[in-house]
TrEMBL record:
The keyword RNA-binding does not apply. Signal peptide: none annotated. It comes from Adineta steineri. It comes from the Eukaryota. It is found in: Membrane. The lineage of its organism: Eukaryota, Metazoa, Spiralia, Gnathifera, Rotifera. One of its GO terms (cellular component) is membrane. Belongs to the BI1 family. Keywords: Membrane, Transmembrane, Transmembrane helix. InterPro entries: Bax_inhibitor_1-related. This is Bax inhibitor 1-like protein. It is a multi-pass membrane protein. The chain crosses the membrane at residues 50-69, 75-92, 104-126, 132-152, 159-181, 187-206, 226-245.
Length: 258
């Protein structure tokens, strides 16, 4: 007689010895954690394309940071406008077999320009403490992966209801930014910074399930979907980097005042 474990992520949870006593093994089961069998095969294939495109976009952004810091493409303000143009161009194209290469090229260009206009912030962080950038990247990766798995392993699309809350939070952040533009308040800046951090995490949950829902309905434009996640990831990275940078600067000021 076999029984099913109530904790499938731990191995041997539902097995019994010959004497009828249950086993007590709590071995972690990674296969159960990465079980996406609840998703349709075409959705799984679509997600593989999305995250492959996201990985290549991250690589392009890294190249953009390197090129800018090396002095070859050190035009961050121009890169902002260039990224806006390529993004708008990408969203105006119909995704099909003929435009697939062009869409991917525009996505790569957007990521490259993003890395270029992020380079001044990254360069500032390196001047303060070279470890800050790597720490921010590792934290961003861990948070992104955890929230992505949470969204994918949830069978019910409950995170789609976060859309209204996230939209309201984004509007509040916009108002706070306008207020801080004239008031120059450190309190408003901190509230906007940490509120934006929570909203960025929320958008990872929301956009991931939105991509799954759209793929279920036949939307296979993995380039646009990867761009949504790329924007979420960059927003999360920037906010974590600024928080670590502020903490490091405050720590250095305290050490200098002693």
């Amino acid at each position: 007689m076999s029984q099913t474990s109530a904790f499938p992520m731990f191995g041997n949870g539902g097995q019994f010895h010959a004497d009828g006593k249950p086993t007590t093994s709590n071995k972690f089961n990674l296969n159960a954690l990465l079980d996406f069998s609840t998703l349709q095969p075409r959705v799984q294939t679509h997600l593989k394309n999305v995250y492959s495109c996201l990985l290549l976009s991250t690589l392009c952004a890294t190249i953009g940071v390197y090129l800018s810091m090396a002095g070859w493409l050190n035009y961050p303000r121009l890169a902002i406008f260039a990224s806006i143009i390529t993004t708008v161009w990408l969203f105006t194209l119909d995704f099909n077999a003929r435009t697939q290469t062009k869409c991917f090229g525009l996505m790569s260009a957007t990521a490259l320009f993003t890395g270029i206009y992020l380079s001044p912030l990254i360069n500032l962080a390196i001047d303060v403490d070279p470890q800050i950038v790597m720490t921010a990247f590792l934290l961003t990766t861990i948070i992104f992966v955890c929230f992505t798995l949470s969204a994918l392993l949830t069978q019910k699309r409950t995170y789609l209801y976060l859309g209204g809350i996230l939209g309201t939070g984004t509007s509040i952040m916009f108002v706070l930014s306008l207020m801080n533009l004239f008031g120059r308040s450190q309190l408003l800046f901190n509230v906007n910074l940490y509120l934006g951090l929570f909203i960025a995490c929320g958008y990872i949950l929301y956009d991931t399930q939105l991509i799954v829902e759209r793929a279920t309905r036949g939307d296979t434009n993995y380039v646009k979907h990867a761009l949504l996640l790329f924007v979420d990831m960059v927003d999360l990275f920037v906010r974590i980097l600024i928080i670590l940078l502020k903490n490091s600067q405050n720590k250095n000021k305290k050490n200098n005042n002693r």
